[in-house]
Amino acid sequence: MISKKMQPLMANNSAIRTMFEEGDIMKKKYGEENVYDFSLGNPNVPAPPEVKQAILDILEEERSQVLHGYMSNAGFEDVREAVALHMNKTQGTEFSARNIIMTAGAAGGINVALKTIMDPGEEVIIFKPYFLEYNWYVNNFDGKVVQAETDPCFQPDLKDLENKINKKTRVLLLNSPNNPTGAIYSEETIKKIAGILIKKQKELGRTLFILADEPYRELVYDGNEVPCIMNFYPNTIVSYSYSKTLSLPGERIGYLVIPDELEESSLVIDTAANANRIAGFVNAPSLQQKIVKKCVSARADVAYYDRNRKALYDLITDCGFQCVKPQGAFYLFAKSPVSDEKEFCKTAKKYNIIMVPGSSFASPGYVRLAYCVSYETILASMDAFKKLAAEYK
Amino acid sequence: MISKKMQPLMANNSAIRTMFEEGDIMKKKYGEENVYDFSLGNPNVPAPPEVKQAILDILEEERSQVLHGYMSNAGFEDVREAVALHMNKTQGTEFSARNIIMTAGAAGGINVALKTIMDPGEEVIIFKPYFLEYNWYVNNFDGKVVQAETDPCFQPDLKDLENKINKKTRVLLLNSPNNPTGAIYSEETIKKIAGILIKKQKELGRTLFILADEPYRELVYDGNEVPCIMNFYPNTIVSYSYSKTLSLPGERIGYLVIPDELEESSLVIDTAANANRIAGFVNAPSLQQKIVKKCVSARADVAYYDRNRKALYDLITDCGFQCVKPQGAFYLFAKSPVSDEKEFCKTAKKYNIIMVPGSSFASPGYVRLAYCVSYETILASMDAFKKLAAEYK
Lengths: 393, 393
Known about the structure:
Structural class of chain A: alpha/beta
CATH topology of the largest domain in chain A: Aspartate Aminotransferase, domain 2
CATH class of the largest domain in chain A: Alpha Beta
Largest sheet of chain A: 7 strands, mixed
Mean pLDDT of chain A: 95
Strand content of chain A: 5-15%
Low-confidence stretches of chain A: none
Oligomer: homodimer
CATH superfamily of the largest domain in chain A: Type I PLP-dependent aspartate aminotransferase-like (Major domain)
Largest interface: A-B, 78 and 78 residues
């Protein structure tokens, strides 16, 4: 009854979502405050106050027919210009509105980018661990995911990357700050990756793209910086989302950046705008676009996440679990004390702790804890974690 | 540089959009009030006042984390329940929230439905004339469009439909009220279509779906009624959009209805919700969903469109052009006085009239005029149309 392509997905439905639903059931049973749900990247931090004020102002300023109407498939010109200027100010780039395509969040943006540049049978290299949903995005366009290794600190294995590039490779999908590890790739690492791609492009006589998924770009701690990849490798498309920065994940608003330096940039930009239309997005939601224009410098409360990060990291390591301290995003990827991390997650549920198994990120033996929860949840979970740890002593 | 699948689209870019952009250039040159732009279905009627009030109320009532947060991929439960109840009240159905999946407008909904039920190589039958964008939606999933004929009043040729159903057919895509003709298919016609499909399903031992694209369901005139197809044919999926009814085309908000009576309904519903996620929509924009809940009975000003319809129809026919009077939607599909209607459109531009050639709807020899413009535009265009007519006397 359903399409062949959807059958494997339905047979093996998203583990994260299943966790989410199990969490809801547990909360109804035990009370919300007694369940420690670290399963989903749904920000507990509210949108910054600028968002509400922006909506009120927009309702006064804009004519309904413009505010809620069709615009060009790439988005409102004034919004794209505001985004470009903000990037230029913060990342030292020289973009204009033309380089920006407003999208339905990063999931929309990545799909539009892949539809634009990838043919069936071509390969997308992704460093492990990674958000497995990427597999479905690549599958939407009949591409193939090739997994590349990282070191114990979740930094790219550059030798493995080089080995995995071949005449079918089209895209290197990078996600830094990373979900699920919180790792950030330094400028030095990005320069090395760029070097490999430039060399391989020449060797293979074939364009290789970096597709950079950067929804966590501004969620960084300890003075870490996220390098602007486009400054080091011209064939880069960046996908950004306001889901985390403005706490608007349900609104589906973000953008793609396609620099002029990218090969045949003008054709790629026009094609991406059309791909946005025919994939069924048509355009990014119009009111949300106008909000972005007014809130281009606004930020969710990063200090709140940082406090959570420290509290959860201390709690987890004090309990004896191993974990690399995250540099960005709002996830912590801890080593499971037993090789079967699904078993570990199951045991954790006895203590009302919900975590996502690392196999949902192509990395068994680990668990992901999303700390975009309330600070109180982390404090309250201490006893539960201690009891869990005691089982593995 | 771009994907093979996007190449034919880019080689032959959307004529409607080209018109739209040419129109903008002409407006800058001659002044907005001197260009009679009938090219695009972008409503000139503002959203009903309930929409603005709903936004103000929602901002007071809902917590930011809920209002702008993730929800289940099918949409907020309370929103889907409100939609279901409204349908039950107006169409005599018995839906619950479970039957409704909130989507990014009808374009999003149709793509999600096709991703859910169609395999590569399968056929989608569509009556001419039709919105050619459907071709790209079907192509997204490697299906094939098969065109079926209509009579001079743009009503389905049932004999031709029957002949075109074969063992590759999966979907009959219906669009009533129709873009570009304004034709409505009567209950009698729908019953006959259902009869053919039921017979053919049995003969071929194969499920055949109706996919009903109904964004114009409430835009009907002269007391016409749009029958509820699901009441006559159980394997029907309806795609609805608030783009026209609430004048929110840029916001991308609508829904799919999948009735319990559809074969393996529960699997198809779950699959569609997941298809919504992995296609990159994730979920329909959250604030817009909440607006729908509060505005489920609100309507844009249909009387305004009706006045436009009458004025433009009278004007066109008084000038000697032939046209079937539209029963719904906000388009008028007039016969070109010469067989090459692109030539006719080009001549019209001399008088600052912008129309879309029928070949953009698989029906050369006609032109489409969208009358979702201001009433004043129609009145002001009278002299231009008279001069245009004089060229063809």
